[in-house]
């Protein structure tokens, strides 16, 4: 299997040196970090950008007329522009900074949802959604007496597009699906999903939490109405994320939170709201997070998204082949089109025990339901062990993981 990665896509040793945490040990062994779908590690350039902000120009933004506040405001606005360019949005004002994907979905559910969803309306989501793209819609539906419709999946963990077509009805008012599944790795045909909904003038929200750092996302070409993602999964800090929304929709939506910054004028009689994006960014924003996200985008661009996805696919293919040789292994999520997520169960063993055993070898994987409980129920399993790869992972680490897994299975059985 050594020939799986036939050419050196980039210098792994060099790239790994950019991530200080990858130099540390776990339980006396080198850390093998395979929980990238939960959160990614941060390169020095991101860590330094945050440090530099606090050391040199920490100030509240859009308020001060003094130089460090102006510098901080410019850096924040520049980060928004970097995000715009990264996802090819038409305008920077279509980029709303949020705490993450969860807040971005909630923003749409509370603002767009409460304005537009009425009794007996229907919202379509899929069976493989993260709880963050289920619960906000469920709560909205309960409040409005609307209905949640679910696109089913097949045994491989692929969406059944014909069933989706049948679910679309005159009552459908919104479609919300993930671009890439966090527990299966399935890459959904989001362009087709959007275009089928648009044939009936139904807006679509895409949860891109697992996609923006694996594959080129072009929101204009996708034609998604909303696209949500989190910084921390794309090498940026925690607590920063993005809601992209088409300007014409965002402009008609009411604010989600109110307070400072989101207003243009306040009197005790009446408040006038600010323009987008500020209308949706009440209060002091996460300036360091936005700056860190901008630095993460620069970093990703310096490696190249195509190189990243090529390397990650090679890791996934190799790991899939090797893990399949272990007796009793069942891979959960075998879609034709898959990102670097390898979820599995071992016959007769508890996924949690596997996770704990792997940790004793310094291998970090996630175990459990991965915030997709309905999907686990559909597969009839309590959860999986999940290895998820990033571009800084190596074939040697996969080999180490497979050996540690074989050992764990031998001891536990
Ligand atoms: N959607 C998907 C597909 C995810 O993987 C995650 C994070 N696991 C989320 C939404 C929620 O992201 P966050 O916790 O960063 O808001």
Fold and architecture overview:
The chain has 413 residues and is α/β, with parallel strands linked by helices. It has two domains: 12-30 and 304-412, Aspartate Aminotransferase, domain 1 (Alpha-Beta Complex), CATH 3.90.1150; 48-301, Type I PLP-dependent aspartate aminotransferase-like (Major domain) (Aspartate Aminotransferase, domain 2). It has 14 helices and 17 strands. The chain has helices at 12-17, 44-56, 67-87, 101-116, 135-144, 161-167, 190-198, 219-222, 247-252, 287-303, 305-324, 351-360, 373-379, 395-412, and strands spanning 25-26, 29-30, 32-33, 95-98, 122-126, 147-151, 172-178, 204-207, 226-230, 241-245, 263-266, 271-273, 329-332, 341-346, 363-364, 366-368, 384-388. Strands 4-10-9-8-7-5-6 form a seven-stranded mixed beta sheet, with helices on both faces. α12 packs across α14. It is globular and about 70 Å long. The two termini are 27 Å apart. Mean pLDDT is 96; it is low at 1-6. Bound molecules: 4'-deoxy-4'-aminopyridoxal-5'-phosphate. 4'-deoxy-4'-aminopyridoxal-5'-phosphate binds at residues 100-102, 130, 132-133, 178, 182, 207, 209-210, 230, 371.
Global Rg? 22 Å
Largest sheet report? 7 strands, mixed
In whole angstroms, the N-to-C terminal distance is: 27 Å
Question: What is the strand tally?
Answer: 17
Q: Kindly identify the CATH topology of the largest domain.
A: Aspartate Aminotransferase, domain 2
